[in-house]
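Notes to self after the Tuesday call (sharing in case useful).
The group wants a holo model before anyone commits to mutagenesis around the pocket. I volunteered. Ligand is protoporphyrin IX containing FE. Logging inputs and output together so the record is complete.
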Amino acid sequence: MTTTLRLWDLPVRLVHWTFVLLLPALWWTGEEGDLDRHKTIGLVMIGLVAFRILWGLVGSATARFASFIRGPGAILAYLRGGPAGLGHNPVGGWSVAIMLLLLGGQAGFGLFAQDVDGLESGPLSYLVSYDAADSAREWHNLGFDLILIVIGLHIAAILFYRLVKRDNLVTPMITGKREVEGVVAQPKLAPAWLAIACALPAAGFAWWISKGAPLP
Ligand code: HEM
Ligand code: HEM
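Result:
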């Protein structure tokens, strides 16, 4: 007997695959010095990360940080062969938090970064000194290398589950659905209006930053 669950809601899947599209675009535009486009895409990234954080607080059960950020006990138990639970397992949960933190941090440094000749800068660099903006640029360069490493690990972990544990994680991230053994209760899905209620402030935040974060 198996149950087909709706594991990942549409917002989680849309945000995930948009990350996958935007990251190469950010790399390409950043390296090529196409910075107008880079900054626009970077601000979309900020909106997405902000949305995912809000969704992690109030969204569907499997999207919530409280459901997958687990303590050392749960992590050790899982590593010793204990239950993975539905959604992100206790190890994967932390990797999700780290990826979101790195993406948010990277975009955050981009906001304050100024390139070496001072011609191109993030929308908040006017708030800090030249030296601070220069350090932000250095952190922004370093941050990207860290992101590449963590995403390399992310993809390696998914391959490991596929090839060694014979567990296909990718299809559920595309369709949202996953078949599990036994009769299992459907995790609670959040309504569409709540996704819109999270998307509006996230988009507003990115827009406000793009204007230089003016205060009234
Ligand atoms: C390139 C940049 C990528 C980034 C920034 C990224 C980031 C993330 C994040 C933040 C999550 C957590 C999803 C959530 O709860 O919101 C996640 C999960 C996941 N990602 Fe990625 N990802 C990337 C690439 C990929 C690729 C190329 C694949 C496919 C091979 C993939 C497959 C998955 C899967 C299957 C999960 C769910 C894992 C689980 O079942 O716990 N990701 N990813
Ligand atoms: C997760 C999001 C982001 C990623 C992955 C990313 C990645 C990159 C990369 C790879 C470069 C090229 C670095 C080099 O010269 O080697 C770059 C440069 C730059 N980025 Fe981003 N970026 C992101 C977000 C942002 C945002 C939100 C802004 C500002 C709105 C921004 C502003 C800049 C600026 C001003 C540069 C030029 C700095 C320099 O000359 O080195 N970035 N970025």
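Two things stood out.
The longest helix spans residues 130-163.
The radius of gyration is 19 Å.
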